[in-house]
Amino acid sequence: MGKIGIYGSSFDPITNVHLWTANTIRHRCKLDKVIFLPCSSKRKDKQMQTDDSHRMNMLQLAIENNDTFIADDYEMTQNAWNISTYETLTYFKTKYKNDTIYFIMGADLLIDIGKGKWGNSSNLVQENKFIVMARDGINMLKAISSSPILRNHDDGETFHLIDKGLAMEISSTYIREEFSLGGDPRYLLPEVCYKYINEHSLYR
After folding, report:
1. Protein fold of 3-169
2. Residues in domain Cytidyltransferase-like (predicted)?
3. What is the pTM of this model?
4. Which range, of 126-135, 159-168, 191-200, averages the lowest pLDDT?
5. Could you give the strand order of the β-sheet that contains 33-38, starting from the edge strand earlier in sequence?
6. C-beta separation of 14 from 193 below 8 A
7. Could you tell me which of 70, 107, 121, 141 has the fewest CB atoms within 10 Å of its CB?
8. What residues contact 72, with CB distance under 8 A and at least 6 apart?
């Protein structure tokens, strides 16, 4: 039985911090694999700046030399209004039925789940395991203890809290802005992705 982390984001584009974060979590939590899961472009709360094909191409280029990283387009192919993280994790638990699945997220998302803002929040917490990264100004233990949804389903193994050394912030938004304004964010993302963006004139 292996341990697999599901790391979702827009990856528009993927950055060096995405890769560093995934590798750090893989090492600290002793994961066998990390699955990079680009979100659907049909989500109403997000607006992608590139086609799905470009996001996936850059992701695959970025991780091609790391056999512990996997790119999966599952959410890209779903209707965003019909799917939630609960359904996504159910899919991966079925696909990797002999492994333990962990959902990787920031503490800000933990608070939203605790407030019931995510689809099927109660069952999501009751039936799954989470690796939660610290965010400035958020007390993760307090967030869990103050939410009935979180505390009543915490069996001591539901949440793996990582509260040290993951504070690096280089956003995809910052990189897109640099490209659009004629900047040069070359060393903030993988070199192959930097070249791909220039070759396809993305984010201009």
Report:
1. Rossmann fold (3.40.50)
2. 6-177
3. 0.93
4. 159-168
5. 69-71, 33-38, 3-9, 100-106, 129-133, 159-162
6. yes
7. 141
8. 35, 36, 37
